[in-house]
Amino acid sequence: MSALRLLLGFDYGTKQIGVAVGQAITGQARELCVLKAQNGIPDWSQIEALLREWQPDALVVGLPLNMDGSASEMSARAEKFARRLNGRFNLPVHTHDERLTTYEAKGERLRGGQSGGYRERPVDALAAALLLEGWLSAQQTA
């Protein structure tokens, strides 16, 4: 963990992928952007541009498990996305249980005054920041 300084987190989805950046030192993350995806496939050049800009030490992909902790079709797709990130960019890629991050992100937006309108102002990047902070917190307690 000590070698990790900067990480990018991904909230994987079939239509869009939220991206966040986080620091291992502070354990905090913030929203970056939401990338469009076609049936779960992003524009890889956009991801490459983010990696060039931020120069992360590792990547974290949210794993959408079922509430009982079992794998789902979406978690299998997220794992495939994680393997593709690793294969294309040769960076360490970790997965992290992201159960309830989207729910939590929507709650945070509601408390901030947003009511609905998640198409116009999606919560995916905020969910990516929350899952990245969760992964960083888990590393500090490990």
UniProtKB/TrEMBL annotation:
E.C. no: 3.1.-.-
Transmembrane segments: none
Domain of life: Bacteria
Localization annotation: Cytoplasm
GO biological process, one term: rRNA 5'-end processing
Keywords from the UniProt entry: Cytoplasm, Hydrolase, Nuclease, Ribosome biogenesis
Top EC class of this enzyme: hydrolase
SMART domains, per the entry: YqgFc (SM00732)
Domain YqgF/RNase H-like intervals: 5-105
KW Cytoplasm (keyword) present: yes
GO CC terms in record: cytosol
GO molecular function: hydrolase activity, acting on ester bonds; nuclease activity
Family note: Belongs to the YqgF HJR family.
Its biological purpose: Could be a nuclease involved in processing of the 5'-end of pre-16S rRNA.
The protein's name: Putative pre-16S rRNA nuclease
